[in-house]
Structures are given as structure tokens and as C-alpha cells.
Backbone:
């Protein structure tokens, strides 16, 4: 699970999440389950992935970085102040 605050435009968010999804879809052992908004805070988002094991998590991180480069996304702390990842097993 990755969760993050987003203060950019909805269009920028969709472009970024679509790029991530494309990268995850091309990573063996990874299934993108969706993007979810928390009810108590509309700018707080979470993405959920099903990952076969802990070693695949490294591939997920690589896929995310490659996806961000593919759309020239450069993290701006005013747009996305934090992104955290959790691994549950």
C-alpha cells in the first residue's frame, strides 16, 4: 500500500496514477487494486497493490520510478508532501 497527500490538479493526479498503473501492470507478480480516497480528508490518497512476496516489492519501487520518469514527473513537495509505502503479509 502506498499513501500520499496530493495538492496538484486532478488531471495531474490521474496522469501520475495511470503511469504508475502501467508500470505495475508490466511487473510480474504485481496486481494494481486501485486508488482510494480517505473519507475524512479528500486530498489524502492510497493505492493498493497485491504483491506476491517481499522481493517483488523492490520491483514495484523500480516500476514506480520508471513510470514517473516516463511522464517527466518531478516530485514537488508542495504538490506531494509525502509518499509512504507499507508492506503487509
Residues:
Amino acid at each position: 500500500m502506498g499513501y500520499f497527500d496530493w495538492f496538484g490538479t486532478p488531471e495531474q493526479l490521474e496522469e501520475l496514477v495511470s503511469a504508475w498503473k502501467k508500470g505495475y501492470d508490466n511487473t510480474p507478480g504485481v496486481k494494481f487494486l486501485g486508488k482510494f480516497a480517505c473519507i475524512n480528508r479528500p486530498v489524502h490518497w492510497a493505492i493498493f497493490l497485491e504483491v506476491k512476496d517481499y522481493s517483488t516489492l523492490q520491483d514495484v519501487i523500480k516500476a514506480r520510478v520508471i513510470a514517473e520518469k516516463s511522464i517527466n514527473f518531478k516530485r514537488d513537495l508542495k504538490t506531494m508532501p509525502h509518499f509512504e509505502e507499507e508492506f503487509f503479509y
About this structure: The beta strands are 2-5, 30-38, 41-51, 83-85. The radius of gyration is 13 Å. Helices lie at 10-25, 54-70.
